[in-house]
Every structure is written in C-alpha cells, then in structure tokens.
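Slack export, channel: ligand-projects

TW: morning all. Re-posting the request from yesterday since it got buried. We need the structure predicted with the small molecule present, not the apo form. The ligand is zinc ion; the SMILES is in the block with the sequence. No rush, but it would help planning for next week.
GE: picking it up
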Amino acid sequence: MNIDKKTQKYDRQLRLWQASGQAALENSKVCLINGTATGCEILKDLVLPGIGSFTVVDKKEVDGADAGISFFLDEDRIGTNRAQAVTELLQELNEDVRGFYLAEDPISLIENRLDYFLQFTIVIATDIPEKPLLKLSEALWNANIPLFIVRTIGFIGYFRIVQPEHTVVETHPDSIMDLRLDVPFPALEQYAKTFDFDSMDNMDHGHIPYVVILLKYLDQWKKDHDGKLPCTSAEKKQFKQIIESGRRNVDEENFAEALANAWRAFTATKVPHQVQEIFNDPACETLTANSSSFWILARAIRDFVANEGQGLLPLAGSVPDMKADTSTYVSLQTIYRQKAKAEIAIVRSHVNKILNSIGRTSDFIHDDEIDSFCKHAAFIQVIRYRSLKEEYISDPKKADIDRWLQDPQDNIVHYVLIRAIDKFYEANNRYPDAATFFIEGDPEEATEESKSEFELLKTYVNILLSEWQITNIPDHLDDYIHEICRAGGSELPNMASLLGGLVSQEVIKLITRQYIPLNNTSIFDGIKSASSTYIL
Amino acid sequence: MPRFSHYEAALGSQLFEKVKSCRVLMVGAGGIGCELLKNLVMSGFNQIELVDLDTIDLSNLNRQFLFQKQHIKKSKAQVARESALKFNPNANIVAHHANIKDPQFSIEWFKSFDIVMNALDNLDARRHVNTMCLVANIPLIESGSEGYLGQVTIIKKGETECYECQPKPTRKTYPVCTIRSTPSSPIHCIVWAKSYLFNQLFGIPEEEDEELDKELNDENADEIANLKAETLALKRIREAMGSQDYPKIVFQKIFNDDINRLLIMEDMWKTRKRPAPLVYEELEKLKDTESQMDQTTNSNTLRDQRLWSLTENFSMFLESIKRLSTQLLAEKVTNPDASLTFDKDDIDAMDFITATSNLRARIFGIEEKTKFQVKAMAGNIIPAIATTNAIVAGMIVMQAFKVLNGDLNECKTVYCSPDRRPKSILSESLNKPNPDCSVCQSAHVTLNVNVKKATLRDFLKEVIHGHDEDEEDICEVSVEEGGRIIYDVEYDDNLDVTFEKLNITDGKMVKVTPESEDDEKYPTVFAISHR
Ligand SMILES: [Zn+2]
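GE: finished. pasting the full token output, ligand included:
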C-alpha cells in the first residue's frame, strides 16, 4: 500500500500517536499464547491498527464452546487446530499484518524451548497456570520483553503487566506550557520591554499578547515585593486587580486572556519532582554501553540543568494561541523557538559527550529524539514494575490485600478468586464448574454437586488466604465463590471483547512508548462496570 | 456442549430469555456499531434492526472490522449485517441503509422495540433519536468515543437525564467579514476554502447575503457590497468549468483580482498587514525553474505530513481543481443539478482545500499548514481507535442486561479514560432529569391527522384551542418543525396551508411553545401520524 493510502487508512489513529507511534506498531511482533476468545479480541484490536506481525501458539482443537464464545471461530472449524483457525480469520482483518501460528502446547514449549518466546516485542498469555507462567515471566523479564497475563471468567476480567522498566517521553500531557513568566530569558525580557503600553493607540493596546501583559505586570510586582511572586490568595487577587486596572475597556480580549492565565504567573518555573527523581536514579548516574537512549538523554538534560540551564530544564519552545496581530504573534513565537533551538544544540553536545564516553557513536541518538525529549522534559516518566516472582512468592502484598479485602465494594476479591482458581486447576487439571447445576441462577437451589464444587474452591481460597496470613475473612467472599463456580471458568463473549479493548490499549501504549501505561494489575467487574488498578 | 450454556448460567435463565426475545434497534454501524453488533449477536440477541446512512470508506478500516477493502463504497448497514450473520447465521438482523431521520422510522416504529442503542458520531442524529425515544418511551443507551475516551449512559423518559438536559457545546462560528476579507489565523483560511470557495465552485453555495447584511454597519458598507459582487462574479466564472483555462481564471480571480480589490479599501489595512496578491505567471515561471533544478524532490517522505512549498501548493491547486471539475462534469451528464459536497476523506477535496487555504495564508502572511493538519481542522476529525470502541460496546451490552432485567436504578453512566487512575473505568449513578430541559420536560402527544386536508388554522383551532377556555389566547403560541418557524404571533402566513404543503408529513414532530407571560408552561411536541 502506498504511503498516502496508508496515511488515509490509519488517519484516525495517527492523530493519537503520529507517524512515530505508527512506525513502532508496524515494527512490532506480538505473540499470543492460547487462542481464547479474549486473546482473539486483543489481537483483533492490534491487527486493525496495524502491528507488524502476530503469532498464535496453541495446541488445542476447536470445540463447541469455543465456537459459541469466540467471534473468530464458527462451527465449521470444530476439530481443527485453534491456533491455525484464529490466525486465518484474524489475518483477514488487515492485509498489512502478517499472521503466524504454532500448533504446539505452550506449556511444553515453555518447559523445553523457552528461547522461542524471546523473538517477540510483547507476549500475551491467556489461560496459563501459575507454574509455567512464573518460568515464562522470568525469561521475558531478563530479556526486557513485556508480558501480559490475561484472564476473563464470567463477568470478571483481570490483567497484569510484567516487565522491569518502562520509560516514556511522549506522555501526552494536556498542554505543554513553558512560558518562563517568572524567569524571562534575556531575549524575552527585551522583547516585552519594547511594548510601551501607555503610548499605544487603542488598536495596538488591544493586541498586546497576553504573555507580554503578564510579563510586564509581574516584573513590576516583583520590583515592589522583593522579587517574590504573588503567593497568598490576597496577593493573587491584588495582582489580578492591577491587570484589570490596566485594561482600557471590557472589549480588550487580550486582557481577558491575561486574567484567565494569571495563575501561570504565580507558579515558579522549576524542575518537577518526578523529573528530579529520574535525575537521581542510579540508571541516570551510571551509564554504560547498554544504557537506553532514554537514560542517556535524561543524563544529558541533567547535565544541562546543572550547567547552562542554571537549574532549569531546556525550554519547550511552543507558544499557545492568543489574541495578537499576526506579526506580533510570529515575533513572540520566534523568540521562544530560537531559545529552545539554542538549548537543544547544547543538549546535543552533552549527548555527544556522553555517547563518546560510553563508546557509542553520535548517530545512536537522532536529532528528532533530542528535540522531542527537550520538548517533553518536564513530563518524562519511568515506571518500574514488580516481578511475578515477587508477587507470587517472595514478596506478596499481604497487608494491602488484607486491607482492600475488608471493603465489600473493592474488586480485589476477584484477584483472590482468580488466584484460587489457578490453584484449583493445578491440583485438579480442570476449572471449578457448577454451571450445569445452577441453571436457575439461584444458589439456594443448588444441588449437592454444585455445593461440593463450591466447597472445593473455597478450600483453595482458604489456602491462599492463610498463605497471606489473612485471618479476618470477609463475609461477602462466599457470594463471589458461588458466582465464579457458576461461570465454570468460562469466558463470556461480551466480556472477552471488553477486556480485549482494555488490554490492547495498554499493549499499544507500551509498543508506541506514548501515553502512560498501567502499573501493574487491572481488575474489571462487569456487573459493577468499574475497574480498579493495583500494584501487586 | 450447547452454544450458550455457561453464558445462560452466568446470566440467569430469566434474563437470558429476555435477551433472546427482545427487539433491539441499533442506530449507527460505524466504529462502536461494528463492535456492538458483534457483541449482540455473540451474546444471543436475536432480533436486531440496524440503521446507518453511511457507506464504507478506507479510513474506517482501522477499526470497523466488519468491513474490508472490497466493501469500500458499499452500505455500512448491509455489509455489517452480512459479516455478522457469518458468525451467527440464526440471528435475525434487518439492515436499513437510510437516515434515521427519515419519516419511515416513525414513533410507531420506535415503539416496536424494547431497547434502542445509539452508536452514532454526530449531535444531530443523537438529538433526533433522543427525542424519538422520549416520545415513544423506549429506553435508550447512548454512547460515544473520542480517542482513548469513551462514555455510555442510559436515557429513560421521566427517570433519567435526557441527551439534552445538559447544554452541549456549540461549534465555533466566524464572522463572514473575517473569513472573506481579513483572515488572521490558519483556521480562517481553511474555513474560507471549505465553506466558501469549495461550495461556490463545486457545491451548493450558501446563501450568505443575509449573513452579510447582519454584519452591515456604517463602516463596512463598501466591504459588504464588494463581497456580494465578488460572489456574483465567482458564480459567473463557474460557467467556464471544464475549459482549458478554468484553473487559471479561478486563480486570477481569487488570488489576485479579489485581493487587489481588498487592497483598495485603505482603512482596512491601517491596523493590519497588507495582503500580497499572487501572480499566476510568476508562479508558473518559478515552477518551471524548480522542476528543472530538481527532478527528485523527497517524494518518499509522508507528503501529507510536511509543509508544501509555494509551487507545490500552486501545482496542487491547478491539479485538484481539474480533478474536481472532471468529477462534477461527469456527474452532470446524468444529473444536470449535480453538485459536490465536501468530504474530509475525499482526496481531491482535501488537496484542493489544503492548496487553496495555504495560498491564501501566504497572501495574508499567515502560518501555513500540512495536509494532515488541514484535514483535522476542516473535517472536525475525532481520533478513533478499535480499542476504545471495543470497551464502549462492551459497556453498552452490560448496561442493556440491566435495562432488560428492569434494574434501571442499577444502571450507570460509565466513563473510560485510561489516564484516570486507579479507576480507568468509572461508573456514576444516573442523574435525574433537568426540570428546565425543554426537550424531555415537554409533553409528547401523538396527533392523528389527515395531512392532506388539515391546515395550520385547523390545528390551532381544534387542537391548541381545544384545551384552552379563553379564545383570545389561541394565537399566543409559536409553532416549529425541524427548527423552522411555521407560525408565531407575528407570522401567520401559513394559516390556510395544509400540513402536507408545509412539509409536515407522517413521522414529523411539531413543537408548540406557549408565548404567554406564564413561564410555567413547557412546549408540547406533537408527533404527526397521518391517517
Ligand atoms: Zn432533558
């Protein structure tokens, strides 16, 4: 497909993640373990926007239940390999995406050929029991490949992201406003001084950009207040009154804008706390030949702040829309842009110095990347995840789970059940299933068989709770155990689709390295229509 | 194992029966619609009617997965039905390739459903379905998505907020004089290219004289007269469409003559930068020298996403005007009244808008924009992705279960916004109706009437006066249909015209608002049913 056609096909999403995000998507290789209904929905939402390729690993044969739940399987496919069947149908959704499948048992693959999974950008595991999951997650962790663990059972959806670290430059904040009103750089200060408000005619006075208005009144204020910004609410009010008194008539929109943006003059420009933390991070302190471009750039910015920046980040360089005549607006824009450009050049030299010191050439980091990093410097993010081993074995969040569990409205109860079901599966090689006994949907009318299923699952819940030393077992737990027995470990089509959307959205954030992804577990309750995020 | 066994157990057999037997109306088969239809079919809904006016476009394929390349230009409703049936051949799906505002979709027809689901992308249709569902008293699930954000809510007459209980932001409009004479920002040039020039040359020109007269004051009489003359001249130029010189004539007119005429009005440029007209011959020369110098301009970079040079804009103007003319003239062969309508996904139209708006920006010293940016600004483009639509459609079905179960008090307004942590999906209780809402608080009445015979006078006398004791009050109302005034105290021209002649036919809604001092009175909406 030619480039313009492609832009047209992907137009509506390019507006979210631009060409750079699209290129990252198109270079990605996604692996899905088990072609479950939820798994297929996730892939559907990734194939449509155009990932590079996907591979489905699944040995199962399609059965009637699959055909009933999964949109991508019909009755004709019953008895055929599920990986092949779903791959063929998913492939039809987008001719730009290549689809592969491997008709092998994922668990034995994890046991015997763990390296197989290291070729992918991202691995999504559905319906894999705890033990092989731990093994897989460790291998991927060491290779820095993100793993998604996904489960839907009845009206409950669960997913967990596992990876050591994720760094984001383009976090897409609501707006990047870096006006430096409190600390104008010389060129800006000079420019503001060229406006002699009092001698202007009404036409010109009504077109002074609000940035200049704020600069002028703030400069005056600082002279009268020992260099301090308006701080108390009385001072802020007073500052606004001073602006108001400079307004010649109510029609002056530029003064209205100045008043609406006056709060920007009350905030001191400084390095945000979370960026300072990134500067203090050992990964920023000690760079090696293996350091990612993110950390090299973070260090270059840190060096800039400590030297030429005099304590401030590089200027973002963009100017918001405002009431002004065209030529004034363009001059103002040029002043900010030129300053930003000059600072980018300084950062480039820091980058080159660092690259040289770790034995890399300067083309390891492109100019575009430096531009973007400087522009977003105040909003960069580092997210560190907990490993699955920490969650399951070495450091479970016992106290947090105990606390959350006491709130009957909290979704954490579903986490307990999903973990218990895994234990149930490991011991019995099947999921708890009371569906056929519960057809009326009333636990009171449950049969003996369903009651025993309930008791059995409950023992695993209790084992888990005692492992976590949780003794205060909440009453509402029993209702949920009934509920999940009724679902019989099975997926519901509508929930599969919903989870597919939630998971693929996070996958896209990780691949494009844009927007801030979730950390680390999300649990969705379909009945309540509410999701919660936990760090587990 | 039977197809729905676990599902039935999870839902409960009572609700499952309702799901199987209920009649669902789905309005819209786009981004959310494709997902929704799949979910409905897979969840056992058996009686579905869907309505969509649109045909399939290339830019739909990144999310509307029931459609593929070979379906481009076909009806969304029909193709969605066919694709969905492949996966559940037993479902009963009726597809209407039509506008939901068509009279065939009457109140009676709405009443034949148990639940209505909106999967729309525009305010106008949403308002219409909202009103229809209020009048028919059928629960409506309303939804929307924009980028990563999504929302689902329930509307039920008398119990919840309706779509119009909270005022909706209106789209920004610009004064005609700014657009036509004194643009100062890129959007002014784009609006000029799209709403004025495109329509004047290829579309149905907007009646702007009235607009212009509204802006008339002592200072701008000359300017207004000038603008009217310009439009007239452009209308005459349109006759030359198809001729070899056509692009040049248009260029000369809009980028040179009109600008020179503006320059004569000295007052206008005392406080503004003077525009600089473009000269056709100069650009032609420039184009020739450039093409001799460099045959291989970076054709591989994304052309939509970089700024075009002056000569590129010039060439694109000439090229796109030819392509659009050919397109229109071809249509005129079969339909002499044919005209083109602006479509943001039509390549020729977007090339034309980009080139002309940039040339105009150049003249006025305004920042130029890439085609990608122009498209967003001209087309009012809302970012859209598969993921959000999947979430929203899933939410719709979850809410539908509650509605069918009669648990309206458990229904929620659900928001999804992935950056809002820890609750990226958040639900809130439904709001009560706004007592000041003119839409859901008006009385809704079905009026059986013979539209061929009944006149407006009959209506006022029999129906409105019918419940009013005081004969003098009869005229103190205003009557509207679809936003146009049919009658008010100062406008009684239509009194003896029949409903049919007034284009008030079966399925139309007539709104009668009392204009007496008494503020307590809400409007009454009459749903016309012809008999
Ligand atoms: Zn209302």
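GE: first-pass observations. Chain B has three domains: 5-147+384-410, 176-378, 443-530. Confidence is low (pLDDT under 50) at residues 295-300 of chain B.
TW: perfect, thank you
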